[in-house]
Amino acid sequence: MASNITPSRLCAAGAVALLFAHPASGHHSGSEYDRSRIIEVEGRLVEFAWQNPHVHFTVEALPDAQGKRVVWDIETNSVSILRRTNATPENLHNGDHIKIAGSPSKRAPNRMFATNLLRADGVELVLGASQPRWRTTAMGSKTTWLEGGTATSGGLFHVWGTQLAPGARRLWRESYPLTPAAQKTFAKWDPLHDTVAPGCRPKGMPTIMEQPYPIEFVKKGDSIVLRMEEYDTVRTVYMSANAAFEALPKNRLGRSQGHWEGKTLVVKTDRIDWPYLDSSGVPQSPGSTLLEHFTPSDDGSRLDYTLVVTDPQMFTEPVELKRSWVARPGEAVKPYNCVDTKKPARS
Prior knowledge:
Elements: E1 3-5, E2 39-49, E3 55-61, E4 71-76, H1 79-82, E5 97-104, E6 111-118, E7 124-126, E8 159-160, E9 176-178, H2 180-187, E10 215-220, E11 223-228, E12 233-238, H3 243-246, E13 255-261, E14 264-270, E15 289-296, E16 302-310, E17 319-326
Parallel strand pairs: 4-6, 12-13
Antiparallel strand pairs: 1-9, 2-3, 2-5, 3-4, 5-6, 6-7, 8-10, 10-11, 11-12, 13-14, 14-15, 15-16, 16-17
């Protein structure tokens, strides 16, 4: 018997609406952190790493009542997120006395996801948080994430960015029509310990389409290349079938063939070697087929996206998902430069 399962364990990466208050990466489950609580840690900044997939801080807290010093492992949003605000590591140095606030981990007593940081010089940084905590103004408050689209020419072929304003269209659903087999697989997923893409392991299709960073469509001979900032991902859409296309092996991004329906690029993808639909662990089988529609608005300010997933092994009916991007002047797909390390590299 099929069931309409609600994946209440959704990672914050998929729920990009939470980007400015909570963890916004699919490299681990955002469920690790208690988002209902904000705590503060004050002490010495031992080291920090301003990097993807997460900015990291190691902080030695001030002694407690028993004179004990606790070293905190703290992470926050990625450089790719923070570079689209005015938060920078400038004037932040190892050895500084700082104060940092964020959501505590449910998994470890000395881990936190940071939203605010008070530098030694008294300047506050908001690290993806929506409001300053200790000052009336703070670096990081100025952001392009909330900006809408601007009319542009070129149809599909330019850079598109994500708008995170309230009401902006997201990708994932709150529930999926899972088959009994999929229910069993999904039930094994532990949001506190399992992860779709640990460290710098790239995501596959369709999970990668959740990434909130800019994307760019480029003509390349008889194909269309889709560049995405996260993991420096490159998808190739073949616009004509040939022997080379037919021989493509299974891989995490699958095999994509496209055609035009008016101004809409329609892409069919199969041969996907990736076991997930999204970052919450919703399963996908090797027989999954994806059908995507990319449609620019008439004025070129917005790109609407529809994805239909057909996977009879995992879903009792096709799953339709939608999101959109906007055209913004100055937006660019920048190098991701992911650093795969659990311990922060010295800055």
